[in-house]
Amino acid sequence: MSLNFFRTLQEKPWLQPDAVLPERVMDRSDINPKKLPLIVFLGIVSVFFFLFLITFLARSQYPDFQALAGETWQPFYHPQQLWINTGLLLIACVALQVALMATRRQNIHTAQIALCLALLFTLQFGAAQLLLWRHLYKLGFYMASNPANSYFYLLTALHGLHLIGGLFVLVPVILRSFGFFRPATTAPQQRPLQPPRQQQLQYSLELCALYWHYLFVIWLLIFFFNASSPAVYKTLAALCGY
Amino acid sequence: MPHVAIADQTSELHDPRSFITKYIWSQDHKVIAIQYALTAIGVGLIALVLSAMMRLQLGFPDTFDFITPNAYLQFVTMHGMIMVVYLLTALLLGGFGNYLIPLMIGARDMVFPYLNMLSYWTYLLSVLILLASFFVPGGPTGAGWTLYPPQAILPGTPGVDAGIVLMLVSLAVFIIAFTMGGLNYVTTVLQARTHGMTLMRMPLSLWGIFTATVLGLLAFPALLVSAIMMALDKLIGTSFFMPAIVSLGEQLDYTGGSPILFQHLFWFFGHPEVYIVALPAFGMVSDVLAVHARKNIFGYRMMVWAIVIIGFLSFIVWAHHMYVSGMNPVFGYFFATTTLIIAVPTAIKVYNWVLTLWRGNIHLTVPMLFAIGFIFTFTHGGLTGLFLGNVVVDLPLSDTYFVVAHFHMVMGVSPIMVLFAAIYHWFPLVTGKRLHDGLGKLHFWITFLGTYAIYLPMHYLGFLGVPRRYFALGSTDFIPESAQTLNASITVSAIVVGLAQLIFIFNLIWTLRKAKPCSPNPWGAASLEWQTPNVPPRHGNWGQKLPTVYRWAYDYSVPGITSDFIPQNISEDAVIRDAETSGDVDDHSDKGSHT
Amino acid sequence: MKLAIALVILVALSLVFHFISPWWLTPIASNWGSIDDTIEITFWITGAVFVAVNLFLAYVVFRYRFQKNRRAHYEPENKKLEVWLTVITATGVCLMLAPGLVVWAKFVNPPTDAAELEVVAQQWQWGFRFPGEDQTLGKSDVRFISVTNPLGIDPKDPFAQDDIIIDNNELHLPINQAVKVWIRSKDVLHNFAVPQFRVKMDAVPGLVSSLWFTPEKIGRFDILCMELCGIAHHTMRGFVVVDSETDFQQWLSQQPTFASTQGGPVGDAVAGESLYALCSSCHGPRGEGNQALNAPRISGQSPHYLKRQLVYYKAGIRGRHPEDTYGQQMAAMAETLPDETAINDVVAYIQTLSSSTPAATLTGHRDKGQPLFVSCAACHGAQGQGRFSTSAPRLAGLQDWYLKRQLVNYQTGLRGAHAADNFGKQMTLMANMLSDEESMNNLLAYIQSL
């Protein structure tokens, strides 16, 4: 990809008029048209989280920073709750992947079940996160009392927002897989261009699965950063040049 | 339900009929572009008035009662923020990006027209939130456009309650709007180019807009991150950026945060932001120069490479804004080096613009005047950047009027020269009418000479050591009385230039109401946007069939060809050579659009 | 054609402007001549490019202007030319960068024999600290800052006891001695800059930054804050006086050590009562003031302010202007207080007085005065209560005719213009924002209502 790009940059466009007439990308049926924008979007979100984590590392090197793990009395010294939440989100991801593969094999019923499971476990994850917040809050770990707490609430909240955004796409997709929202009549001239229902579902699921896997990776990062000990931060910060 | 892209439809999916769907809730990129442009220009005029008030205070201190130190800082802050973000970014990308991208690549619209519409309305919302801060208790924030904590959220600075919160919210909303628009631009450029439109056949305007959009998408998150963390520091009392502080004699609850961390985040956004503004301007001016000099842009490949390299380098020079910020001074070596390296591709662009004119056939039309004016002002502004980028030279000059003069020259006057060049150049495409020539020339001369009269002397105030963001200088032991004369003359020039913009607005209105339609491609431009079957292009842009592109956008004065330009959609067979009977220009473009 | 001429003229004018301009770098007073040299180098290189590019541009615009039967030359690119231009540009850039980095290295590594001192910035004043005889600055922390410990010095640190504290905006330095300056801030970002020394650095709360220089010229220079720090940013002025070694030592020996400022003298109100007898003849037995005798109300006034004014009157910093007749009266009265103890005593006695708020004597629009007061409130407090931290006196409850006279005195230089009045300059800059009598009355009407 990048090599291609560099080769492209060396073309001399004033030579050979007519010679190359590449097809329009949008006319190609083998390309999921929304995949590129989603990847770009996830790239932006990555920068967003990356910058938070970089500031996290920088901030962790100030003396007032009290990590949430590392000492026995810290809430994430035994991060069982975090592991449980991880499991919930992982199941949701797997379910979405199953739904995608089932759709590719035209097995719509399996897909429907898997999709419902994915939604269920995603909601479970969200609820579990809220419980975790309440738990910490009751222990007296308020948002403003320490930067480590601030980052924990902030990052999980943003991750939650990201997840809610995903639900806005996933829920309609699920409904569509059950046959809702099918256009009643389509104008005749458009019909040939509308991809068949199965392919449309497959495209949507590809996007959802990618999105959920990404959510999962981000979650792992947040997990890692919040449940590490000060020594780990120190090493990482040293690697980053702080 | 995800919206359906119409760029790939042969017929128009939605055919707006009522006034509201056509001009208000429109999904047509051209209408959205105009909405963006008008909103940006409107809010920009407010910022222009604010700058006039600042200049009145500086030129004639202690004359105007309503300009208190408090109000002055609010004017400074709002002027800066509006001009950089809400005017330049929005007008160049939201306005010109929206208008030109689909037309230049031969698409019917953006890939996601609905998202595009949302982008505009979200942008408008962000502008309204920003303007609302003028009407809240305490007024808008006066922390400077850089919004540095701690002062931005501590008493002693104007607008530390509602003002700063509204500013941060408005920026967050703006970033959402920009992300929606930017996703659209990137996807459209990458996926909706018509047959034959390879990347290297794109006009430089597109390269500039595309690269700037990518920069924006990667840089704005840094601003969002810092805005979120600062808002939490303000509202909840977290200590991301706030160290232990005694504010006006009172111990605060903050502990341990780092104000410098904010500066790093801010400039990680802020420096690319300079190029978010500059790159589209670089691109558009290249096209204007080529068309009006009847010559291909000189060194097209080098120009593309320069845009890409500048875009990349702009992410690793940010700390040159922070040489005296108290950060580890060792960073100075690295950032001075990267900053001066960026001068090389930038200089190449300047050379290539001049070399494009060299041996051309220069029509000194109004757009061309502004474009050449840009080369002059940009050369000046770029060269003074070499002072400030070189870490040790920056020591005496930073935070003085030299900085103000430099960045106004390089990212105020220069992009605005290009904006005017672009408006005069593409106005016939947008409206079918040419702006009045005489008024345009008058507008150019006053703006060009006037801005130079503002900013050239201002550099010398900076050499003297006059600090920026001072409400009044008062008496010092090193600034001579004559500096006040200089300040007054700068103010007079600024007011004249400000008023000269009324000529432009009058020209717009007069042309729209009174002028006769002009020919469809009045400048004889080869790029695709001028080759639509109707000028101005209708909804869907291309009639029944999408155009096919056979060549790059710069086939001007090709030897052996009768016409002095060949539109991009003319195939090699259809080109009329000198030996054959000559045909006229209109004949070409007709043929072209139906092949 | 016109454009080509305009370009040539603009280039020529820029050069003329540069060479006849009286506005250029202020004469240097430190060792950083090398910084000026790098500026010169940068100026000549960029100037040459500016002239060359724009004259060539003018030539091209003239030579290749539109002609009906001319056809533009067709040349997509010219690799050789482009490579040459790149190489030349890169060389020019290196010529500017290399000396810059060399000088920067000098800036980053201060000489080992540099004397240390500390600058503490706050909204909108400067404080300074010298290490004292042990040559070591004691520890400090924002948490220690209080009315008696304005620089936040650790009272338990043995190294801190002999530190010399200067809390009045004026710093003295010995000539030809390299100094390494540690810079702290109590509240927001500031910037320690002396244009004649060329170097500057931000003061950042939460960390200590530094810079170094060697003063090489005797004289008094302005310290300017060059990082926006709030409403009174432009008034944040300090002074650095470069002395000969002996003058410097003499000055330094007169400054208090940290230990001596702790548990210092608190005035004795009983002793002050008898001293106050003289004052009461004008200011009234309850300190209520008397317009007929031009005496302001002094009961309820901030003690730090009363003390500073008495010191100023005594030292001739206030009330010595030939046109300041009322000030001269007060200066004569202040002379009767023999020493600092007497001043402390009488101030302590004034603290025990109370009197009622005086009635308004001027008419103005309170509502129009309110937006003006926003800028005053930054130092004097939203209720005009006065603030120790900003050295600002109480305004609420002061007679409006007195405030008006003081504002006019500040504007006309009857007050605040004395070289040693390190706080008055601030007020002069602020008072100047009131352009006419009407706005002054409006402002005073608002203050009257507080």
From TrEMBL, chain A:
GO terms for molecular function: cytochrome-c oxidase activity. One of its GO terms (biological process) is aerobic electron transport chain. Keywords: Membrane, Transmembrane, Transmembrane helix. It is a multi-pass membrane protein. It is found in: Cell membrane; Membrane. InterPro entries: Cyt_c/ubiquinol_Oxase_su3 (IPR024791), Cyt_c_oxidase-like_su3 (IPR000298), Cyt_c_oxidase_su3-like_sf (IPR035973), Cyt_c_oxidase_su3_a-hlx (IPR013833). GO terms for cellular component: plasma membrane. It holds the Pfam family COX3. The keyword Protease does not apply. It comes from the Bacteria. The chain crosses the membrane at residues 36-58, 82-101, 113-132, 152-175, 203-225. The keyword Metal-binding does not apply. Gene3D superfamilies: Cytochrome c oxidase, subunit III, four-helix bundle (1.20.120.80). Residues 35-225 form the Heme-copper oxidase subunit III family profile domain. Belongs to the cytochrome c oxidase subunit 3 family. This is Cytochrome c oxidase subunit III. It comes from Pseudomaricurvus hydrocarbonicus.
TrEMBL record, chain B:
GO terms for cellular component: membrane. It is found in: Membrane. GO terms for biological process: aerobic respiration; electron transport coupled proton transport; respiratory electron transport chain. Residues 19-550 form the Cytochrome oxidase subunit I profile domain. Keywords: Electron transport, Heme, Iron, Membrane, Metal-binding, Respiratory chain, Transmembrane, Transmembrane helix, Transport. The chain crosses the membrane at residues 31-52, 72-101, 113-136, 164-186, 206-232, 274-291, 303-324, 330-354, 366-389, 401-424, 444-466, 486-510. It is a multi-pass membrane protein. It holds the Pfam family COX1. GO terms for molecular function: cytochrome-c oxidase activity; heme binding. PROSITE patterns: COX1, COX1_CUB. It comes from the Bacteria. InterPro entries: Cyt_c_oxase-like_su1_dom (IPR023616), Cyt_c_oxase-like_su1_sf (IPR036927), Cyt_C_Oxase_1 (IPR000883), Cyt_c_Oxase_su1_BS (IPR023615). Belongs to the heme-copper respiratory oxidase family. This is Cytochrome c oxidase subunit I.
Automatic annotation (TrEMBL), chain C:
Residues 112-254 form the Cytochrome oxidase subunit II copper A binding domain. GO terms for biological process: ATP synthesis coupled electron transport. It is found in: Membrane. The chain crosses the membrane at residues 41-62, 83-105. Residues 267-354, 364-450 form the Cytochrome c domain. Keywords: Copper, Electron transport, Heme, Iron, Membrane, Metal-binding, Oxidoreductase, Respiratory chain, Translocase, Transmembrane, Transmembrane helix, Transport. It is a multi-pass membrane protein. Coiled coil: none annotated. Belongs to the cytochrome c oxidase subunit 2 family. Subunits I and II form the functional core of the enzyme complex. Electrons originating in cytochrome c are transferred via heme a and Cu(A) to the binuclear center formed by heme a3 and Cu(B). This is cytochrome-c oxidase. It comes from Pseudomaricurvus hydrocarbonicus.
